[in-house]
């Protein structure tokens, strides 16, 4: 018995009718990133497993349970499909010594892979745009990253997002807080779920990020990082807020914001929507001043974010942002011996003039061809019989509005077809 092969669970096909929205999004982000001077970097989808283990950290969701890791049987190497983009980006920057030329404003775009339970807004292959500003210490760049996100939402027509910002302080102040947090949770062990107990000594801050409703009360009562924050981090956080206020960006301070990854310090931020249920974070980022050194480079401050494309597109759909793009401007139907040669000339000539053209394929009489023209989303049918062809003319029939059919030469046809 034969059974049909299906796509892998949580890994989606993007069908032609959805691709318009992706194309629109991709064109928008390219212009948007260029407007801020960010350059594209493209790294492989597969990397050595150690890259992610070392940079993301062992006590994280990603490394603990979400990575697609496998042994390359041809040489025994342990490889991993990239679960996020920062590690690869930093690896490439160090490997090619890009920082010798000064700080780098970079971005990447593409699929990421995490073995999660597939649900709305959570997939096993999903796409991210990530932006990394490497070599910048000041809060100006943290502000720039957030301000540029706000512009993107405007350009995409998204308005239902709010910004939460927080600070994790310095590594040293976090260490003090970490001890205090462990101490507190130790006194409330019976309130902790299994995940939290497992993380108590490896990544206690991550407990604050628990999605378990039963944990929310204990989390609410946990000590606050704010009380342990170092002076410099507080100043940095204030500078960020000043710039956001200058630019009229609304935000809420959320000091319980902990990023899932180990490598963040100081600024953390998330853009969140209430329109997508539990998977409401469409963009998340922050500062990671220690990562580059940890990966073998010189100490280099850096800041970045990543956004989940599927969630952003879902939000656009949810809030009625419509992208309309037509497959073709014209659909050419033809019949007759001279016409069947001339129609190719016409099609190529129209394409020379930046028109999108579908040339009918598969024969049939005019009536059946016109049905195909109607079913396409083209605005016009171009009708070519031998009579038109021998005079180097075409007949133009509007398909979406009531108007007369006209018969004209090719130059005039192009002019008419390009009219709005
Ligand atoms: P979450 O708490 O939702 O698991 P995360 O902290 O793991 O998110 P990041 O690693 O910060 O997410 O990734 C940045 C963004 O990428 C997220 O805010 C989200 O928009 C998107 N994202 C992350 N994981 C997935 C996934 N499995 N499917 C779709 N989008 C995702
Ligand atoms: Mg996650």
Secondary structure: elements and pairs:
Blueprint: H1 16-35, E1 39-40, E2 46-48, H2 49-56, H3 61-66, E3 69-72, E4 77-81, H4 86-95, E5 104-113, E6 125-134, H5 139-156, E7 162-167, H6 171-186, H7 194-199, H8 204-207, H9 216-220, H10 231-246, E8 252-253, E9 265-272, E10 281-287, H11 291-294, E11 302-308, H12 309-318, E12 330-334, H13 337-352, E13 357-359, H14 366-375, E14 380-384, H15 386-390, E15 393-398, E16 406-409, H16 410-418
Parallel strand pairs: 1-5, 7-8, 12-13, 12-14
Antiparallel strand pairs: 2-4, 3-4, 5-6, 6-11, 7-9, 9-10, 10-11, 14-15, 15-16
The chain binds adenosine-5'-triphosphate and magnesium ion (MG).
Adenosine-5'-triphosphate (ATP) binds next to strand 6, strand 10, strand 11 and helix 12.
Features:
BirA Bifunctional Protein, domain 2, binds adenosine-5'-triphosphate, Rossmann fold, 420 residues, alpha+beta, binds magnesium ion, five-stranded mixed β-sheet, eight-stranded mixed β-sheet, 16 strands
Describe the structure.
- This protein has 420 residues and is of the alpha+beta class.
- 39% of the residues lie in helices and 21% in strands.
- It is built from 16 helices and 16 strands.
- The chain has an eight-stranded mixed β-sheet. Strands 13-12-14-15-16 form a five-stranded mixed β-sheet, with helices on both faces. Strands 2-4-3 form a three-stranded antiparallel β-sheet.
- Bound molecules: adenosine-5'-triphosphate (ATP) and magnesium ion.
- Magnesium ion binds next to loops.
């Amino acid at each position: 018995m034969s059974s049909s092969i299906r796509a892998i669970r949580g890994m989606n096909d993007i069908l032609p009718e959805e691709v318009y929205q992706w194309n629109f999004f991709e064109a928008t982000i390219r212009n948007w990133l260029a407007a801020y001077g960010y350059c594209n970097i493209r790294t492989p989808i597969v990397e050595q497993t150690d890259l992610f283990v070392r940079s993301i950290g062992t006590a994280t969701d990603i490394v603990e349970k979400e990575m697609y890791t496998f042994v390359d049987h041809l040489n025994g190497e342990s490889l991993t499909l990239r679960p996020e983009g920062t590690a690869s980006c930093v690896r490439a920057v160090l490997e090619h010594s890009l920082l010798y030329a000064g700080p780098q404003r970079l971005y990447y775009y593409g699929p990421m892979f995490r073995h999660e339970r597939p649900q709305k807004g959570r997939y096993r292959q999903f796409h991210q745009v990530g932006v990394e500003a490497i070599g910048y210490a000041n809060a100006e760049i943290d502000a720039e990253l957030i301000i540029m996100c706000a512009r993107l939402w405007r350009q995409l027509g998204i308005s239902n997002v709010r910004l939460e910002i927080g600070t994790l302080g310095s590594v040293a102040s976090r260490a003090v807080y970490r001890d205090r947090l462990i101490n507190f949770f130790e006194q409330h062990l019976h309130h902790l779920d299994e995940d939290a107990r497992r993380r108590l000594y490896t990544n206690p801050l991550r407990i604050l990020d628990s999605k378990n409703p039963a944990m929310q009360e204990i989390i609410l009562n946990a000590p606050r990082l704010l009380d342990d924050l170092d002076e410099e981090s507080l100043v940095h956080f204030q500078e960020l807020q000043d710039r956001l206020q200058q630019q009229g960006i609304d935000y809420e301070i959320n000091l319980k914001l902990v990023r899932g990854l180990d490598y963040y310090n100081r600024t953390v931020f998330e853009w969140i929507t209430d329109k997508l249920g539990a998977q409401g974070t469409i963009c998340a980022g922050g500062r990671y001043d220690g990562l580059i050194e940890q990966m073998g480079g010189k100490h280099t401050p850096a800041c970045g974010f990543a956004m989940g494309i599927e969630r952003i597109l879902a939000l656009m759909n949810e809030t009625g942002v419509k992208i309309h793009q037509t497959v073709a401007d014209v659909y050419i139907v033809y019949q007759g011996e001279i016409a069947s040669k001339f129609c190719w000339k016409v099609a190529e000539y129209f394409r020379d003039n930046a028109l999108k053209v579908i040339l009918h394929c598969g024969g049939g009489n005019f009536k059946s061809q016109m049905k195909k023209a109607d079913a396409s989303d083209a605005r016009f049918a171009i009708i070519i019989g031998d009579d038109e062809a021998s005079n180097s003319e075409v007949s133009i029939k509007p398909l979406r509005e009531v108007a007369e059919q006209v018969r004209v030469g090719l130059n005039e046809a192009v002019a008419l077809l390009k009219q709005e």
